[in-house]
Amino acid sequence: MASSIKLLDVVALTEDMPHTDLVRGQVGTVVEGPGPETFEVELTDDNGQTYALVPLHASQLIVLHYRPHSFKGLWPLQKR
Is the dihedral of CA 6, 61, 39, 42 positive or negative? Predict the structure, then answer.
């Protein structure tokens, strides 16, 4: 299955990685895709300093979305 992960996607880890001290949910940016299902992910702190640059398989990542793919059913906003 072809991965939908692209260069510069913001991603989160889907599993703990004890050998790197990274944990599920940490967020990074895809900075390279050396293979069809392998990605270099850069993780940075709040000051923008890189603290990890790790190769990860697509199955270890989930792409984060900051807006809906469609607005169907979302507008108009209804008060409850």
Answer: positive
